[in-house]
Design brief:
Order of helices and strands: HHHHH
Structural class: mainly alpha
Number of strands: 0
Low-confidence stretches: none
Strand content: under 5%
Oligomer: single chain
Largest sheet: none
Number of domains: 1
């Protein structure tokens, strides 16, 4: 029995390594997109162009950072549950809302982060496709609403 627990722990360490690499890659992509957007904002020659929208590039950079934050929350949650579950100093170093005691709490925290990220991604996509808006575009906000309702139900169920 103990051998199985340690095998799961090693698997969690391997998962954390790759999630950490992915998180760093997303942060790097977000930084590059931010610099690209700032470069476009500084280009004075494009200001007369009506199709020029540097705010969309900034919103896309924020999307990447939010996805990186979701990965970071997952990384810290897995680390807390499987690797450093008895390390009091580690637990005090992370924010209280990220101190997970079981997998259900991690699921709720991740769900909350994913809903917020999806909402921000929808707003940036909505702004970028304002001229091409049609009824099919409403599928995304309806999906976000359904996710938010299911989150509330799961949170209510866990609280009661």
């Amino acid at each position: 029995m103990i051998e199985r627990i340690f095998k799961i722990r090693y698997l969690a360490i391997l998962i954390n390594i790759f999630v950490g690499i992915n998180t760093l890659a997303l942060i790097f992509i977000g930084i590059m997109r931010t610099f690209y957007a700032i470069k476009h904002i500084a280009d004075v020659n494009k200001l007369s162009d009506h199709n020029y929208r540097p705010g969309i590039e900034i919103a896309e950079a924020i999307d990447v950072f939010l996805i990186a934050l979701v990965f970071l929350v997952f990384l810290i949650g897995i680390n807390t549950l499987f690797i450093k579950y008895n390390d009091e100093e580690y637990l005090k170093s992370i924010p209280k809302w990220m101190r997970v005691k079981d997998f259900s709490q991690l699921k709720l925290i991740l769900m909350e982060a994913i809903i917020a990220t999806a909402f921000i991604m929808f707003i940036s996509a909505f702004i970028s496709q304002l001229e091409e808006f049609n009824w099919e575009f409403l599928v995304v906000p309806i999906s976000i609403l359904l996710l938010a309702i299911s989150f509330k139900v799961l949170k209510w169920k866990e609280d009661h």
